[in-house]
Design goal:
- By secondary structure, the protein is an alpha+beta fold.
- The chain has 7 helices and 9 strands; from the N terminus they run βαααβββββααααβββ.
- A 4-stranded mixed beta sheet has the order 4-5-1-9, covered by helices on one side. The protein has a 3-stranded antiparallel beta sheet with strand order 6-8-7. The chain has a two-stranded antiparallel ribbon with strand order 2-3.
- The radius of gyration is 17 Å and the shape is globular.
- The mean pLDDT is about 95.
Length: about 200
């Protein structure tokens, strides 16, 4: 089972609802800085996805990746970009999820040359010029999702290979979709093909 659930951080009254609906011990763990909104939103999405079961305690695992305490029956990964947040929930093993707003990025071609492999660069060149920036973000999110599934870091970006045959030999699968001006990628231990119809929207 996989679920891909999105939320928007600018929904009026969201923070008040989070404080009201989440257990106080969870709210008290939330950071007080600019990360607070996304942190609480992630817990809200998890509580919604696991309802009516209570939200298990969450710890930081390898390289700071959040996960549930043992015994583990579900795995998850969160990503946010701008005002958007996404949860990927699984009962099949470790997962990675990454989203990015499709937006201009200075020197994106130079960045691609530095961290994308030859096959990935060909994928960019194969699409029309007006779609190459979106293709850049597609490959970026795919590589990030792979790293997050493996508890890697962004510094390993150049080492990750988003080629499906390579990943499948390593026992994981990548899928991608564009939805609401977002590039969305997931990396899973079994096949999970995503599309805009796959994405559930949670209204706080």
């Amino acid at each position: 089972m996989y679920r891909l659930i999105s939320g928007n951080l600018t929904t009026p009254g969201f923070l008040e609802q989070a404080v009201r609906c989440l257990p106080s011990e969870i709210v008290n763990q939330a950071p007080s800085d600019r990360r607070r909104t996304a942190w609480l939103a992630g817990r809200m999405l998890l509580a919604h996805a696991l309802s009516p079961s209570p939200l298990p305690a969450i710890i930081c695992t390898t390289n700071g990746k959040p996960g549930f305490i043992k015994p583990v029956t579900h795995w998850f990964n969160l990503s946010h970009s701008g005002d958007n947040i996404m949860l990927l929930l699984s009962d099949e093993g470790e997962v990675g999820c990454d989203i990015e707003s499709i937006r201009p990025r200075k020197n994106w071609e130079k960045i691609a040359d530095q961290i994308f492999n030859a096959t990935e660069l060909v994928r960019i060149k194969q699409v029309p010029d007006e779609h190459q920036l979106a293709q850049f973000w597609r490959i970026w999110t795919e590589k990030e999702a792979i790293l997050k599934q493996r508890s890697g870091t962004v510094w390993q970006m150049a080492e990750s290979d988003s080629s499906p045959p390579t990943l499948e030999r390593q026992g994981c699968y990548i899928s991608h979709t564009f939805h609401n001006q977002l590039s969305i990628a997931v990396c899973t231990p079994t096949p999970f093909n995503i599309s805009p119809a796959t994405v559930e929207t949670y209204h706080w």
